[in-house]
Amino acid sequence: MNGLIKHISILSLFCLTGCQHYYFLKEQRVESDKQSCWKFKLYFDQGKNQLDFYTYGDYVYNKVKKQYIYFTSSEMKRLLYHSIPKNYTEQFLFMYTYQPTFSNILAFYYKGVSIEEVKKRYSEIPHKEDLNQVLARYPFEKFQVFDLFKKVDGGVIRFVAINNPNYPKDPGYKMFNKEINDMFFENNNLLWDGYVEPLN
Fold it and tell me: Phi and psi (nearest 5°) for 186?
């Protein structure tokens, strides 16, 4: 009996440590918390670099409610490797809203990856680019994906946003596009080195 319990304990520990998930709930620091907008300090490259990121107040960043998370771990892993077949170095953002039309947003740091490598990978996907950044919206499996890469010291950072694929009232993704435009081109326009045209 003790041997069986030991084997079950080892198996449980393996599952807990071996199963990757993307619910990053630590070290997301809210600097200001207003009713309509929150300002985050996002840290990456083991805390050496940081950036400000502004969200609407209905985005959740510190708990998991699976009915508002539209991806499985295996789906997110496939999506990440489909675009850039390299391991990310760190994840530094995970958030979602209770609104069914809006997106799940994650962010990653890729140490040692250049923006030129990203541009080569995206050469066959409709995208926009300039010297230091690449952005695209494209279908992947059941999702519409917004992918944004920005050159930083030592690598690139990547924001990934996906839509709710089970929401039937946004067939042309207009609401998803509006949320992306508001979040990334209005609230966070200071992320950009210059003007970047929002999505159509």
Answer: -105, -65
User: What is the C-alpha to C-alpha distance for residues 15 and 10, in angstroms, rounded to an integer?
Assistant: 9
Length of the chain: 200
Structure tokens at 54: 């502004």
The pair of three-digit structure tokens given for residue 32, joined into one six-digit string? 């200001």
**Would you state the structure tokens that stand for residue 38, as one six-digit string?**
């929150």
- Quick: pLDDT tens for 15-48: 433 457 898 777 666 766 566 788 888 999 999 9
Q: Tell me: the pLDDT tens digits for 38-80?
A: 888 899 999 999 999 998 888 888 889 999 999 999 999 999 9
Q: How far apart are CA 198 and CA 191, in angstroms?
A: 13
Structure tokens at 110: 């890729």
Per residue in 35-60, is it b (16+ CB within 10 Å) or e — as a string? eeebebebbbbeeebebebbbbeebe
* 3 state DSSP class of 114: coil
CA–CA separation, 19 and 6 (whole Å):
20
